[in-house]
């Protein structure tokens, strides 16, 4: 996954409150990884697996959506129909492959959706609305903001290494980890120090409740998604 | 010395978490070469030892290591990793923080152990493959009967789990030394530490 | 009203940065104060005292009082100072906290806990005042250095402080962005803000300054009124190690006697085309001839393709199909990677080893200790050979990179903004390095916004415009005129003529 994806500034086509996305992510995470193959689970799991598909379609990401659909549909179909009709090694392979795919892929796709459609400022705003303390919000937001910087530094260092002829297989391959990481740390630390100084002179850390200009709030679509997700979740828990 | 975390400390946590994770992630990429996948639990904490040891030079208050664990766990959660990562990042990082604090964040012995404990957060990424299988298998048993389930249980034996714990610990221990030598060789001489 | 009484300061772990000795200064409300002096004279340290970063962020031994509007800045927490003093720093890349521009403008106000409505109003007003409207809502990582700096200024202005402190704000800016910075400072001055600027590039500022403080070794040596300062003769400025005040005065400067060993041989380029996805800057050069063994300054507006050209020439861009011919020998991208050496703007990215000596040794095909020592000697680096490259000063690091280029025996050396943020003395040192490399028969390309450097050390100018070569000319009398005309604001020439 591309870590700098968080920096992406293109707004989502279907705007949802980050908290809605978070609820969906959590429920998909818990239910699909938690598993269950009997009773009401056989209905709830496929329904929840539809969520990422819907969201991908809403963002016009048709190719990933199609791929996702093929993967999940075949994995779930295999779990339902093939497992009981095959034997031996083949059975084992199907159980493992279908089990892993149907559990982890929907969650990963939700993560992908979350990361590519949410701006960092929206995250921060949502976290502030959730009343998380600044001790968690500040490190987390700095981390997200810093990934693209690390990526930029890494690219520049890689260029320099190529120019100097330092590469795997070259005469300096023994020290390649050192050459790659040490300058990266040096320049990242320096940028980090300047970043701290700049943030402090802009009043970060003032013991008042921070405000946020970022628009977050639930709309009708948010409520729709939340009710759908949560009712499936409670059904899964209680039945 | 004021023991409350200042804005500056919080920013430092964020910056070093980003660097730590970037290094960790880049190292983990070699897991895409299938044979090397098995050494990822060893290699990642080894290489990430360099940024972590550098981070510890900026830490002198309780809470910073814990917050690093929390940031990592939130990142894991948002990028679609199993939710179990969250407790599995917070508990080891809190324990590591306590261990490091007992050494005043400067005792080499507690730094080594602290980093080993901290690194065990990686387990959270593997855990669904092991312990959550119980619920998985329980479900399977209902659906498909005992034979299949037992074969599957045999493929992922519990000792592999302990092997991973051991690999992480060994990787982290070597990583602590690697980090220490990088500090001495580069960062001290460059005037950064 | 700002008052500094008997300020003494030493950094706790000093790494080059200079302390301060017995600084006494009072700055009136609405005054524009320019701090100048050579690198390491303490002007940055002084700005950090005023914005409170010393002693709250950079630790050390501070004595004396610093009062802003009656408040002792070294005693109150930084977030209180933040409401009175806004700070803009040198490096546009490291001073933003958010990834999109609008959030960055709001950042300070959000920290203060102002209601969202007021913040939005302020952003609107500032976007109008500072002409930031078309930058709103964009990713900061996609902005140029000049645009980033504008956002930084806007973000500070949104807090509506009485005092602005700017620490070498133009270091990484091109001519156009520098002019915009000047307009911005003029605006703040007209609003009655107190402005304190530490700066090397003086030509855009001297008209605005009410008072100029010249510092040396952590002390205030001289104070001039703005008008007195502007009348200082060039010789006096040279003596003080200060950059030129008036770019127009360069028209009368004697031609550089450095009319080189450039032969009449030429390098030919074919098919240098390149474009980046989601970026309008493209390079489009079908063919061109460049003088061999010359020092060619690459100039052009922001986005003209200077950096892209240099990156393609070096072979960094794998997709660029270009070929370079040198006396019949043909170099594709990969060959050029082995024959070119780029001294990057941030040299920290290209120094890898634990000592200066090792740095040169890994640059060589076959390590040769004597050769390493010779090169170090010739670049005045011998005494530093066992030090860690990262512990050196900026200028020294740059010389180490140059030494690596020499050690690797590459015929083509490129420089990306080698004098950004350098004072006069260090600029001349860079020029001296160019001369040495010329004597070795190297061909050099220099991306630069610094007309003084071009006059001091370049032989030719390559003017890029919209990804194409607008013109290549030697720096003779008419070439010099043409080059300077590019850098000097056409309006200011017209005004001068009218007077």
Distance between the termini of chain B: 19 Å
Q: How much strand content do the residues of chain B show? A: under 5%
> Could you list the spans of chain B in which at least 5 consecutive residues all have pLDDT below 50?
none
What distance lies between the first and last C-alpha atoms of chain A, to the nearest angstrom? Answer: 36 Å
Rg of chain A, alpha carbons: 23 Å
The parts of chain A where pLDDT drops under 50 for at least 5 residues are 1-5
Helix content of chain B: over 70%
* Main sheet record of chain B: none
Shape of chain A: flat
| Rg of chain B (C-alpha, Å) | 18 Å
SSE arrangement of chain B, N to C: HHHHHHHHH
- Shape category of chain B: globular
Number of helices of chain B: 9
Q: Please, how many domains of chain B? A: 1
Question: Based on helices, strands and strand pairing, what is the structural class of chain A?
Answer: mainly alpha
Subunit arrangement of the protein: heterotrimer
Mean pLDDT of chain A: 84
Order of helices and strands of chain A: HHHHHHHH
